[in-house]
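[Automated response] Your request has been received and processed.

Submitted sequence:
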Amino acid sequence: MIKEQCKKNVWRGYCSYSCSKKVWKDGYCKQHHPDTVKERYRQSQLLYEEKAKRSSWYKLQQAEIRIAELKAEIARLKKTK
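Generated structure:
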């Protein structure tokens, strides 16, 4: 009797082997199913973006954008006088 295993090949060091987990859906285990992988990537991206928004680099970039907007507004107001 052949045990159904995940069809994903995984790397360990310099060689690859078949995942030994049982099939969950569409020939993949829960960990390697494309829907699960997409969701895990999406969550990772959200965490990265939240962390980036708290960084000093992001805050400086936003401040520079706001300064440029204010300079443009000042220039526009000086022209109308």
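Summary generated for your ticket: The chain has a mean pLDDT of 91. The first strand starts at residue 9 and ends at 12.
If you did not submit this request, please reply to this message.
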